[in-house]
Amino acid sequence: MSRGFDGKIAIVTGAAAGFGLAVSTKLAAAGARVVMVDIAADELHRQAKEVPGATPVVADVSKEADVDGYVARAVEEHGRVDLFFNNAGIEGRMAPMTELSVEDFDRVWAVNARGVWLGLRAVLRVMKPQKSGAIVNTASMAAIRGAATFSPYIASKHAVAGLNRCAALEGAPYNIRVNAIAPGHIDTRMARDLTAQIDPDDPTGVFEQTAQSVPLYNRYGTADEVANLAVWLLSDEASYVSGSLYLIDGALNA
Ligand SMILES: NC(=O)c1ccc[n+]([C@@H]2O[C@H](COP(=O)([O-])OP(=O)(O)OC[C@H]3O[C@@H](n4cnc5c(N)ncnc54)[C@H](O)[C@@H]3O)[C@@H](O)[C@H]2O)c1
Q1: Is the minimum distance from the CB of 189 to ligand 1 under 6 angstroms?
Q2: What is the helix, strand, coil percentage profile of the chain, to 5?
Q3: How far is the CA of 30 from the centre of ligand 1 (A)?
Q4: pLDDT band at residue 3 under the 50/70/90 scheme
Q5: Spans of all domains in the chain
Q6: Is 240 a catalytic residue?
Q7: Mutate to test the pocket of ligand 1, among 94, 190, 252 (most ligand atoms within 8 A of CB)
Q8: Does residue 65 register a pLDDT over 80?
Q9: Spatial separation of the C-alpha atoms in residues 149 and 141, rounded to whole Å
Q10: pLDDT tens digits for 201-229?
Q11: β partners of residue 136
Q12: Would you say the CB of residue 221 lies under 6 angstroms from ligand 1?
């Protein structure tokens, strides 16, 4: 029985937690072999044991050698790359720009923008000669709106939306589809850290208030719900979808 991704080779970044772990789990369950990439070595090795057939690769997506290395590892082990979930990202420090340092900006930019570009460059170099492939980049609703106190993250996710469009145009002549997801408030470690940054004395209060602000269900989304969208975009069912940015936000930005 076909499970949809039988024999496909996938790379997932930020795979030790959140969306990356959820997508790795779903792709493996559907028959793909997953190269799971993360900077958090212990957590990555622990989680990869639960994902059948997965290869854990410790790498920092902001570093050129690490990115070229995780793609080379996938090719050495499996000979090709069919699917790429270009997802690792960090939230950085929340504060008005007048209170942020250059280092605060550069770190977020290095992981979220340069890291996504490095991943696209290395994976497209493999997919173009194959003349096939599907890529999903993780942007955010931060790619379509501003927010006071969140300028490095907002800028980096606008960059992901731009890189997504460029990669879709570069990939199209080679039958490579490239799309981005733009999640709203999703309950992962990152979202919990943000509530603690907003009010260290009452993160639960911030969490509950944020949940109430979401029109659909008055709750945060789950990593599983986001993974369902990403996996669909990676699948052949999305054969005519490319260059798009998909909000998944419970109507928050409607
Ligand atoms: N949770 C949300 O509400 C939300 C909303 C919109 C977009 N996003 C985006 O989704 C993506 C995944 O976030 P999440 O919520 O699953 O967060 P998470 O913190 O649970 O998971 C992120 C993973 O990325 C890894 N990572 C961080 N920096 C890395 C680096 N330099 N190299 C390799 N791996 C690195 C972390 O170790 C972690 O395992 C991010 O790009 C984030 O910006 C999250």
Answers
A1: yes
A2: 50, 15, 35
A3: 23
A4: confident
A5: 9-185+222-248
A6: no
A7: 190
A8: yes
A9: 15
A10: 999 999 999 999 999 999 999 999 999 99
A11: 85, 179
A12: no
